[in-house]
Design brief:
about 140 residues, mainly alpha, 2 domains, elongated
Length: about 140
């Protein structure tokens, strides 16, 4: 009549698989596996940092920033360094999104202005104008 469903068992190598996912920078799938298996992210700090290096070398610092923001996990790189890397790699939208998300503009104001200018040069004017307004408000708040 009804099938008997058993909870999915994690293989003994589940922890190894999660480590492998983190090390290759596949943070999304690694986090899902951690949740299924009941592990804490902090148990994989070294693997997370290895993945951060791989992502940075693969020119994907915005993924690291998103992971840091979503899970409050720290890696060997500070947020400002990762933001500057995103800018240097030409990921202007990711740079602006994460700078705003982390409420960081002091010390990278020139980068912000140049990134907005690059969006305008790429004819992404609505996005550029939105970022100008957001960062204008952020800068105004910090003056108070």
């Amino acid at each position: 009549m009804f099938k008997q469903f058993k909870p999915r068992e994690i293989s003994p190598t589940g922890q190894e698989e999660i480590s492998r996912l983190f090390q290759k920078g596949d943070y999304h799938n690694a986090v899902q596996q951690c949740k299924k298996a009941g592990y804490k992210l902090s148990e994989f700090q070294n693997d997370i940092e290895a993945g951060a290096l791989k992502l940075l070398l693969s020119r994907r610092p915005s993924e690291i920033l998103s992971f840091i923001h979503k899970h409050s996990i720290h890696v060997q790189y500070d947020v400002t360094t990762l933001l500057k890397a995103a800018f240097d790699f030409g990921d202007y939208a990711g740079f602006l999104k994460n700078a705003y998300r982390f409420n960081i503009h002091t010390g990278i104001d020139q980068h912000i202005d140049l990134a907005i200018e690059q969006l305008k040069n790429r004819e992404q004017n609505p996005q550029a104008e939105a970022w100008e307004q957001k960062f204008g408000a952020l800068r105004e708040q910090s003056k108070r």
